[in-house]
Amino acid sequence: MNLIARLKASALVNRLLRRKYSTTDDPQEVPVQKAAYHYFADRVVNRTDRVLDIGFGLGYGACLLAEKAKSVAGVDVDEKAVRRAMSAKWPSNAGPFVLYDGRSLPFENGAIDVITCVDVLEHVQDYEAFLMEMTRVAKRAIALSTPNRRPEFTKPDGSPKNYWHLREWNHAELDEILKRLKGWTIDWRFVDGPFEGPFDISAAAGEKTMALTPILFKE
C-alpha cells in the first residue's frame, strides 16, 4: 500500500472510530459541563420554556434543566445514549430523547424556546450548517458551551489533543463565527476555573477560562 492509500485508509478509520464513540462507553459527569448547565438553568431558562438539549449524552444536563423548564426534550447522534435514555427514569417534564442524523433537527421553525448545546460543537464537521439549523428551530435563545482552545490541550500543529474533537476555538475565533448569524445577539460568558472546578462564570475570557459559553438571543 502506497503512502496516499495509507493516508486515505487512516482517515477512514478515524471517521469510523468517531462515529462509534459513545458517552456511555466511559460514563462520567464532566464538571465544566455541569457548570454550564447550571448557569443556563439559572440565567437563561424560564419556567414556561420548552427546552431542547442537543447531544444530551448521559442526561444529567437535561435533568438539571428540567428542574426549571416547563419541558425538556433531547436529541443525540449516539445510538447507545438514546437506548440508555429510553430505559432511564426521567422527571415527568423530560422527554422524549431521540436519535437524529446530526443535520436536520426534527422540529418545525421556532418550535423550541431555548436550545442548549454543551460540548457538541467541537465534534461537528459542518458546524456552520449546524448553527444555522439551531437558529431555525430556536424561538428565543441558543445556549452554547465548547472548550476554550488552551495551549496545554493543543498540539503543535494547532489541532486539539483530545482525539474526539475536530477543532477548538478561542474567544475571538468563535465570536467571528457567531456574528455571521443574522438576527441574533451574543451575550458572552466564560466558565473559569481548574479542570475539576470549582468554577466561576465571567463576562471576559482570561487565563483560567476552560469553556466558551455564549448565549444567543433572538433579536
Structural description of this entry:
The chain is an alpha/beta fold and 219 residues long. The protein has a single domain (29-218), classed as Vaccinia Virus protein VP39 (Rossmann fold, 3-Layer(aba) Sandwich), CATH 3.40.50.150. 30% of the residues lie in helices and 24% in strands. It is built from six helices and ten strands; from the N terminus they run ααβαβαββαβαβββββ. The chain has helices at residues 3-20, 31-43, 60-66, 79-87, 127-137, 171-178, and strands at 50-54, 71-76, 94-99, 112-118, 138-147, 184-187, 190-192, 200-202, 209-212, 215-218. Strands 1, 2, 3, 4, 5, 6, 7, 8, 9 and 10 form a ten-stranded mixed sheet that branches. Strand 7 and strand 8 form a beta hairpin. Helix 2 (31-43) runs parallel beside helix 3. The protein is globular and about 45 Å long. The chain starts with a helix and ends with a strand. Residues 1-18 have low confidence and may be disordered.
List the uncertain runs: 1-18
What's the total count of β strands?
A: 10
Give the percentage of residues in beta strands.
Answer: 15-25%
CATH superfamily: Vaccinia Virus protein VP39
From the spread of the alpha carbons, the general shape counts as globular
How do the helices and strands follow one another from N- to C-terminus? HHEHEHEEHEHEEEEE
Q: Helix/strand/pairing class, anyone?
A: alpha/beta
- Specify the helix fraction band: 25-40%
Main beta-sheet strand count, sense and barrel state: 10 strands, mixed
Q: Termini, distance in Å?
A: 55 Å
Q: DSSP helix count? A: 6
CATH arch. level architecture: 3-Layer(aba) Sandwich
What is the CATH class?
Alpha Beta
CATH fold-type name: Rossmann fold
Domains, number: 1
The residue-averaged pLDDT reads 90
Cα-atom radius of gyration: 17 Å
